[in-house]
Design a protein that fits this description.
164 residues; 7-stranded mixed β-sheet
Length: 164
């Protein structure tokens, strides 16, 4: 299984790497995430400037290829799918976002915006967040993401699915 992971909190966020560690036993993980915090940009794409990608060497997690993108979470998914990955992933997971994406917040969430980009391209996609900013427990959210991903990957009828 091939898994694409992104977020809106940036390539160095704790939630991103907790997610990677949680799901890497499911298959080959590639991370394509913004080079800085891009919270609140929704599905925005960069249109008027060049968007650059830089491979992290070494990756923070052995065996995981990771790219930092000078753009939005949506840019990360688009560039990952169109330029960086050899083939489409079996699933896209965006997060783990620090703070809740609930109610109207999902309209501006970069975490959710990235998941929408996968969904629009027929890739089962998950946006996962934690409803906390203090004493954040990423491990629990990571276990939830892994359980959801396993269910989706084992159920072939979920090809056009978005979970937020």
């Amino acid at each position: 299984m091939n898994i694409l992971i992104t977020n809106d909190d940036g390539i160095h966020s704790k939630g991103l790497w907790a997610l990677v560690k949680s799901v890497m036993s499911l298959g080959k993980v590639t991370v394509v995430a913004p080079d800085r915090d891009q919270s609140g940009v929704g599905m925005a794409m960069t249109l008027q400037t060049v968007v650059r990608a830089r491979e992290l060497d070494p990756s923070p997690v052995d065996g995981v290829t990771a790219y930092a993108i000078q753009g939005t979470p949506a840019d990360c998914v688009i560039i990952g799918l169109e330029s960086l990955l050899d083939k489409p992933p079996d699933i896209l997971i965006s997060g783990i976002n620090e703070g809740a994406n609930l109610g109207m917040d999902i309209m501006v969430s970069g975490t959710v915006g990235a998941a929408f980009q996968g969904y629009f391209r027929g890739i089962p996609s998950i946006a996962i967040s934690v409803a906390s900013i203090n004493n954040v427990r990423f491990e629990e959210a990571g276990r939830t993401a892994k359980s959801l991903a396993k269910t989706i990957l084992n159920y072939q009828e979920n090809k056009n699915l978005l979970l937020c």
